[in-house]
Amino acid sequence: MPRAVAGILIECDESIKAMIVKIDKQHNHDFIIENIDDKHALIKADRHEELKELLKKDLKDTVREPEDSSESE
């Protein structure tokens, strides 16, 4: 008998979507219900907040802060 799973539809850039797919793979496919296309996915509603926190952590680790360009030459 089929079971219903509550989900949240997300839309994001391809780069963010790739990070979400990577996080999902690292956590035994515990977040994504359906990978729709390059910009959309259906995420398990009860894991949404955890995914957001993991994504924030990944972004903080990979995105560099812009260098201060106020130095005089």
Characterization of the model:
The longest helix has 15 residues, at 48-62. A hairpin with a 4-residue loop joins strand 2 (32-35) and strand 3 (40-44). Helix 1 (14-26) crosses helix 2 (48-62). This protein has helices spanning 14-26, 48-62, and strands spanning 7-11, 32-35, 40-44. It has 2 helices and 3 strands, in the order E-H-E-E-H. The protein is 38% helix and 19% strand. It has one domain (8-66): 2-Layer Sandwich (Alpha-Beta Plaits). The chain is an alpha+beta fold. The protein has a 3-stranded antiparallel beta sheet, with helices on one face. One of its GO terms (biological process) is nucleotide-excision repair, preincision complex assembly. Component of the 7-subunit TFIIH core complex. It holds the Pfam family Tfb5.
Outline of the structure:
The protein has 73 residues and is α+β, with helices and mostly antiparallel strands. It has helices at 14-26, 48-62; strands at residues 7-11, 32-35, 40-44.
Outline the fold blueprint:
Elements (H helix, E strand, L loop, with lengths): L6 E5 L2 H13 L5 E4 L4 E5 L3 H15 L11
Antiparallel strand pairs: 1-3, 2-3
Task: Tell me the CATH superfamily.
Answer: TFB5-like
The largest β sheet comes out as: 3 strands, antiparallel
**Portion in helices:** 25-40%
CATH architecture term = 2-Layer Sandwich
Q: Structural class of the secondary structure composition? A: alpha+beta
Secondary structure tally: strands: 3
CATH hierarchy class name:
Alpha Beta
Tally the helices.
2
